[in-house]
Amino acid sequence: MLKMYSLVVQFIGACLEPVMVVVTELLVGGSLRKYLVGLRPRSLEPRVAVGFALDIARAMECLHAHAIIHRDLKPGKIAIWKPGCFMGIYMVDFCNPE
């Protein structure tokens, strides 16, 4: 399957029966929220924070270019990729909040 953008989690497939399941690529590292909570009382270095913000903006730009709107963007729905090595983010969880 062709990956839409390097900062958006790759969708592999889904099924409705016997239960609804969505399959994506495996991401190691946890959520941005979990990472930030683990840093307390320290905070992100400004360089890292700006890098994350740029990655999030680029991912949102890609989604919007493909007519996809992420209606519930928050740190718990952004995955950290390879923490402790090269850190980057992935946009995840595109479920409809209604």
Structure, described:
The protein is α+β, with helices and mostly antiparallel strands and 98 residues long. The protein is 29% helix and 17% strand. The strands form two sheets. A two-stranded antiparallel sheet has the order 1-2. It has a two-stranded antiparallel ribbon with strand order 3-4. Strand 1 (11-15) and strand 2 form a beta hairpin.
Characteristic terms for this protein:
98 residues, alpha+beta, two-stranded antiparallel ribbon, 2 helices, 4 strands, 29% helix, 17% strand, globular
Can you summarize this structure?
With 98 residues, the chain is α+β, with helices and mostly antiparallel strands. The chain contains 2 helices and 4 strands.
Strand portion, in percent?
A: 15-25%
Q: Which structural class do you get from the secondary structure elements?
A: alpha+beta
Order of helices and strands: EEHHEE
Sheet with the most strands: spatial strand order: 1-2
Number of strands: 4
User: Which value, in Å, is the CA radius of gyration?
Assistant: 14 Å
Shape: globular
Distance between the termini: 29 Å
Number of helical runs?
2
| Estimated helix fraction | 25-40%
